[in-house]
């Protein structure tokens, strides 16, 4: 049994939680000005990180609140848990989405692990 530490409720069984995808994916400032490709990248392109990854979780059978977690995707070690709107504790790497935001994806390298067609 794996315990997740909800910021509101404390340690609980992982079966009480649901995964919500990559954390820190900001809504575009001017969504109406995005190209179809940029909008598709916002909606569907997510990183598939090997190692530390910032992700969202919801305590669905507890307080029903969303929070962020830094988890190692290889070892499943939970490095940090923090509330929505907060930044990860110092010493941990910046959220992958924040790093990617400053470097737009090149078409050929957009997401080599994504095999979906017709964006
Ligand atoms: Zn909770």
Automatic annotation (TrEMBL):
GO biological process terms on file: tetrahydrofolate metabolic process
One example GO MF annotation: sarcosine oxidase activity
Protein name: Sarcosine oxidase subunit delta
Pfam families, sorted: SoxD
Entry-linked InterPro entries: SoxD (IPR006279), SoxD_sf (IPR038561)
Top-level lineage group: Bacteria
Region (Disordered): 86-119
């Amino acid at each position: 049994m794996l315990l997740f530490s909800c910021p509101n409720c404390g340690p609980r069984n992982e079966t009480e939680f649901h995964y919500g995808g990559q954390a820190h994916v900001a809504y575009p400032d001017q969504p109406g000005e995005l190209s179809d490709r940029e909008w598709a990248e916002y909606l569907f392109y997510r990183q598939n990180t090997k190692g530390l990854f910032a992700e969202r979780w919801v305590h669905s059978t507890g307080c029903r609140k969303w929070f962020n977690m830094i988890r190692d995707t290889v070892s499943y070690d939970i490095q940090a848990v923090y509330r929505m709107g907060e930044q990860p504790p110092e010493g941990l790497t910046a959220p992958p989405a924040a790093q990617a935001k400053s470097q737009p994806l090149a078409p050929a390298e957009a997401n080599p692990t994504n095999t979906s067609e017709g964006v």
